[in-house]
Protein: DUF2332 domain-containing protein
Organism: Phytohabitans houttuyneae
Amino acid sequence: MTTGKSARNACAASTSELSTTSVARIRESTARTSRPRSCTIQYNTDKLARGMMERVTIAETYVDFGVREARGVSPAYERLALAVARDEQLLALVAGLPEGKRQPNLLFGVVRLLGGPVDDPAAFRAYVLAHWPEIAAEAGARITQTNEAGRCALLLPVLAALPQPLALLEVGASAGLCLYPDRYGYRYGDHGVGGGEPVLECAVNGLAPPSSVPHVVWRAGLDLNPLDVASPRTSCGSMP
């Protein structure tokens, strides 16, 4: 039998133990539930920061393309590149593409291929926003390739100085436009070489220009994705 004092002490002890246990459980439960929420918040913050950094990087890429590659060559692509670089909505769409599919010339080429406008930035923006699923799908299935016949003007002095005739093999030939250095015309300052078309112009600094085009008797090109220059779908990626 328990006296009143003993009963009060026992009750107090029991209440104290219950209180301590409850507090411990509450703390444990709070720790279990709060940690994932904290991690989720941190993850979302990191993801947001990465997204912002990606858009900044993409914007810089488009500015660089417009200023360094399109300026003086394609006023239309220069305008588009600088407009995209300032447009958060377009940058967010481009950031959703795989990393290797975000380059300006691929985006602009795909829009041209699908029949969209590339001369007016406002019309281009409206088209991209309205047709983004088709644009993203087409961009995912395509790659850009460099087809720059002007490189032959740089190679010609070396090719013409080699023992003739020549056999040419180009690895990574794309459409093979650089396999015909003997069929173009060239102009090095005031000095002309060859009678073909188009005429490729090249500045000369310190080296004497060649006096003739090389004599090519065999040529071949290797490429993982050879292009047909006669196909309209091939030329859509060129700068207008």
The chain has two domains: 12-144, 151-223. Residues 4-70 form the longest helix (67 residues).
